[in-house]
Amino acid sequence: MSERNSITLLAELAFAEPVAETELLALAAVVGATRQEPGCQEYAAHVHAEDPKRVLFYERWQDQAALDAHNASAHLATFRSAVGPRLAAPSQLSFWKRLD
Fold first, then answer.
1. What is the end-to-end Cα distance of the chain in Å, rounded?
2. Which CATH number do you get for residue 27?
3. What distance in Å separates the CA atoms of residue 100 and residue 93, rounded to the nearest whole number?
4. Domain count of the chain?
5. Residue 29, φ and ψ in degrees, nearest 5
6. How far is CA 4 from CA 35, 66, 80, in A?
7. Could you list the residue range(s) of the whole structural domain that residue 36 is in?
8. Do 67 and 38 touch, CB atoms closer than 8 A?
9. pTM for this one?
10. Taken in order 16, 17, 22, 27, is the CA torsion positive or negative?
11. pLDDT tens across 7-60, in order?
12. How confident is the model at residue 79 (pLDDT cuts 50, 70, 90)?
């Protein structure tokens, strides 16, 4: 499959309080499980350098089908249940397509 079919997703989460140990454990669990998914090319979580209430996921998927499977995964549902109540706002998603 061509890199041109790949999807890059930036997902930003805004927590009500600085990310704590509970959220760090949930982040580590979802990252580890997601990296094992078919079609996952890259998946990383980042805490903002100056605002510990913000987390950014950088994701690269082989194609839309791989992203759809991720969105339906049990480990993502578990993550959403764990951190959802601590979010200050809905997640901000932006989708990107590779040019070359």
1. 13
2. 3.30.70.100
3. 22
4. 1
5. -65, -45
6. 20, 14, 29
7. 3-97
8. no
9. 0.91
10. positive
11. 999 999 999 999 999 999 999 999 999 999 999 999 999 999 999 999 999 999
12. very high
